[in-house]
Specification:
Elements (H helix, E strand, L loop, with lengths): L13 E2 L4 H16 L4 H17 L22 E7 L6 E7 L7 E2 L5 E7 L2 E8 L11 E9 L4 E4 L6 E6 L5 E7 L8 E5 L4 E5 L21
Antiparallel strand pairs: 1-2, 2-3, 3-10, 4-11, 5-8, 5-10, 6-7, 6-9, 11-12
Helix pairs in contact: 1-2
């Protein structure tokens, strides 16, 4: 089961917050990613210190982009707030806000990227797919790592490595993570996995504050 979503380009880059820190970071991302297009391992290694610097600055993210969302199409009150996306839709930055005790579905991202914890604590369970994907709707997963995350921690996505996971907030307040991905993550079709039944389905997570032209299909994840 493979999703290759081709998204219609936008007229221009979209910014959803006013932040010089974010604009400077995105400019750095664009420069480094363009010069390392053939080696995404190098892309991530070079971007990591800049991402760490962004996470350490606690004033740039507006409070309303660090809130849970009771009306979230992801369910469970999870807020997925788009901060920036490129007009070619091959780069996005968003915050993910998970209420205390809530857990995301097991899902993939289908892009290189960096995820960093901005506030709170999380537990991440990382999976590896061990079947060949030939049986539609079936997926066999194996847990490869369970890690506790604190504010400032960063992990890399380089599919298939680290691309399938579930994240739970373990702090008493909501956790806020910042995602840098090499796609328009909320609008592409991805995979939601249900390990208990060894099943998989397509879903589109959407954003809490920005529409997707592709939303008509309405395939949204449901939090367990």
């Amino acid at each position: 089961m493979t999703n290759h979503t081709i998204l219609e380009p936008l007229p221009e880059d979209q910014w959803f917050i006013e932040s010089q820190e974010l604009r400077s970071f995105v400019a750095t991302v664009q420069e480094i990613s363009a010069s390392t297009v053939d080696d995404r391992t190098q892309t991530l290694a070079r971007l990591k210190p800049y991402f760490q610097e962004l996470l350490a600055q606690q004033q740039w993210l507006p409070e309303n982009f660090a809130q849970v969302n009771p009306k979230s199409r992801m369910g469970g009150g999870i807020g997925q707030w788009l901060l920036y996306r490129a007009k070619d839709r091959l780069l996005s930055v968003f915050s993910l806000v998970i209420p205390p005790g809530s857990i995301t579905p097991v899902h993939d991202h289908l892009a290189w990227g960096l995820i960093g914890l901005y506030k709170g604590n999380q537990e991440e369970t990382v999976y590896r797919r061990v079947d060949n994907g030939d049986d539609e709707g079936h997926a066999q997963l194996q847990v490869t790592e369970v890690q506790s995350l604190q504010s400032g921690d960063i992990y890399c996505l380089l599919p298939p490595d680290g691309d399938i996971h579930a994240v739970k907030t373990t702090s008493q307040s909501a956790s806020v993570s910042i995602h840098l991905l090499g796609n328009d993550t909320g609008c592409i079709l991805r995979h939601q996995f249900i390990p208990e039944s060894h099943s998989v389905k397509s879903f589109r997570s959407g954003y809490s504050n920005a529409p997707c032209k592709e939303e008509q299909e309405k395939e949204y994840a449901q939090v367990r």
